[in-house]
Design a protein that fits this description.
- By secondary structure, the chain is α+β, with helices and mostly antiparallel strands.
- The protein has helices at 2-8, 24-35, 57-71, 126-136, 156-166, 172-177, 189-194, 231-244, 265-278, 326-334, 344-356, 386-407, 413-420, 424-436, and strands at residues 12-15, 39-43, 72-73, 78-85, 88-95, 104-107, 110-117, 120-123, 145-149, 186-188, 205-210, 221-227, 248-253, 256-261, 288-292, 296-302, 311-313, 363-367, 371-377, 440-443, 450-453.
- It has four domains: 2-136, Methyltransferase, Cobalt-precorrin-4 Transmethylase, Domain 2, CATH 3.30.950; 141-199, no CATH class; 202-377, Heat Shock Protein 90; 386-453, Arc Repressor Mutant, subunit A.
- The chain is built from 14 helices and 21 strands.
- Strands 12-11-15-16-19-18-17 form a seven-stranded mixed sheet. Strands 1-2-5-4 form a four-stranded mixed sheet. A four-stranded antiparallel sheet has the order 3-6-7-8.
- Strand 4 and strand 5 form a beta hairpin.
- It is extended, with a radius of gyration of 31 Å.
Length: 455
């Protein structure tokens, strides 16, 4: 039963015995579970996952309830579940995710809110604490009313795009009904983020096209850009950057030309839209980043998932559709940049995997305590094996030989070796291949003759 519970719960912690005099060691987990997606705290199991048992389960259960109710505020929702395994009793404290966040641990006049970070409970950073406070007030970041007045700013790109996508013009009433401003024309954070002006510095997107497979290649970046201002303009600029810095191959077929793009356009757009819409805007020191490598695109958004789930590769459970910034998400849905229902993961995976047509998955999702990242593989990228590198080097030397011969038909093997920075033996090898391939020929004697490029 114990192992069944552990495998089914999304987060858990172990305590060998109940600490009554120093309860902070386990109350941190109660606070963190309540502030996150819930979890189970087991008493009677040591840190090596070995069942050691509880001597007086009734006393321990009573004390757990008493200490939680007196030390955690507001009072979280939890269930005490005693179990027996092979004659040994242990207690599971099942903590529910709470609606009245943040849930604080209080002691000696000090209040601390905790969150889960991997298998540990840590004090909530400022930007996460701010989000927990908003959640407890049934508010979101994008709904907060600011001191900025709509009449002091322009919304030309947003309004033009809205008309282009919906064939209707947005009105003053729409700004109010969409919760972009109040009746007295004070902008909400959602309204501020859609203005043409760069009012908030932290809503930027950094885009980089790297040479190679990582950020430490010799040539480093071949192109980069920073976009700020209204979110709709940022989205448009980011997608244009990706389009300019990726390629599209094509091949002839009996039915005509077949295009072979590196990435599925819808999948990439979905990844960027989600990063912009669902990022944690309370995390002021971070920006959305788009990194294009030879073999993949990585789109990284600041902040954990709104659901609190953590995974690397793909979620093992159904991901609840929770919108961190529902006002912004609704506006983008109206402009058909995204759907209101949560289908983003499937859209990114299906669109990308369709290009490969090999029944394998070529998308990776990483949800950590500090960021969310989508990694999309390049459908046209082929790993350079040792044989590939040898062939490429051979082609390069052959082209250099042809180039030198066209410049000087009387050039010698010694001079060719110096010009191509290789050996005389290598030059003779590739000259022989070029002659056998009917690409070059020798006119006259070996000593006084000349080279001629045939084709």
């Amino acid at each position: 039963m114990l192992y069944k519970l552990i495998s089914e719960c999304s987060d858990y912690d172990f305590k060998e015995q109940l600490e009554v005099n120093k309860p902070k060691s386990w109350l941190k987990s109660i606070s963190a579970f309540s502030n996150g997606i819930g979890g189970i705290l087991f008493f009677g199991i040591n840190d090596k996952n070995k069942l050691v048992g509880i001597d007086n389960p009734q006393y321990v259960s009573d004390k757990i309830s008493e200490i939680i109710n007196s030390k955690i505020s507001p009072t979280p929702t939890f269930l005490l579940e005693p179990y027996q395994e092979n004659g040994v009793t242990f207690i599971a404290v099942r903590v529910m995710p709470g609606p009245s966040t943040p849930y604080y641990y209080s002691s000696s006049g000090v209040k601390e809110a905790y969150i889960r970070s991997g298998n540990q409970s840590i004090i909530a950073p400022r930007h996460i604490l701010e989000e927990l406070i908003l959640k407890g007030q049934n508010k979101t970041y994008d709904s907060i009313v600011t001191s900025y007045l709509k009449d002091d700013y322009s919304f030309s790109f947003f309004e033009a795009t809205f008309f282009e996508k919906t064939f209707t013009r947005i009105t003053e009433k729409d700004y109010t009904s969409f919760s972009l401003m109040t009746e007295d024309k004070h902008l909400t954070n959602a309204g501020v983020l859609l203005a043409d002006q760069n009012i908030y510095r932290h809503n930027r997107v950094f885009c980089t096209r790297w040479n190679g497979l990582n950020k430490t290649s010799l040539e480093e970046a071949s192109n980069d850009a920073e976009y700020s201002g209204g979110l709709v303009k940022i989205l448009d600029s980011t997608l244009n950057f990706i389009k300019l810095n990726t390629k599209k191959r094509w091949k002839k077929a009996p039915e005509g030309r077949i295009e072979m793009p590196e990435y599925d356009e819808v999948a990439v757009r979905e990844a960027v839209v989600n990063a912009i819409i669902h990022r944690q805007y309370t995390n002021v020191g971070s920006e959305v980043t788009v990194d294009i490598y030879d073999d993949r695109i990585e789109v990284t958004s600041p902040g954990p998932m709104a659901s609190g789930l953590i995974f690397n590769g793909e979620p093992t459970v159904n991901v609840p559709s929770i919108r961190r910034n529902p006002i912004i998400a609704d506006v983008f849905a109206r402009m058909r940049f995204m759907e209101r229902r949560g289908s983003g993961f499937d859209k990114i995976k299906n669109g990308t995997n369709r290009l490969f047509a090999d029944n394998n998955n070529h998308v990776k999702f990483i949800a950590s305590e500090t960021f969310f990242r989508v990694i999309i593989e390049n459908a046209n990228y082929k790993k350079k094996t040792k044989n590939n590198k040898v062939r490429e080097r051979g082609k390069e030397i052959s082209n250099q030989i042809l180039e030198q011969i066209q410049k000087d038909p009387k050039i010698t093997v010694i001079d060719l070796a110096a010009a191509t920075k290789t050996t005389e033996k290598t030059i003779r090898y590739y000259i022989n291949k070029l002659r056998k391939g009917g690409i070059i020929t020798r006119q006259g004697s070996n000593k006084f003759g000349t080279w001629k490029v045939i084709k």
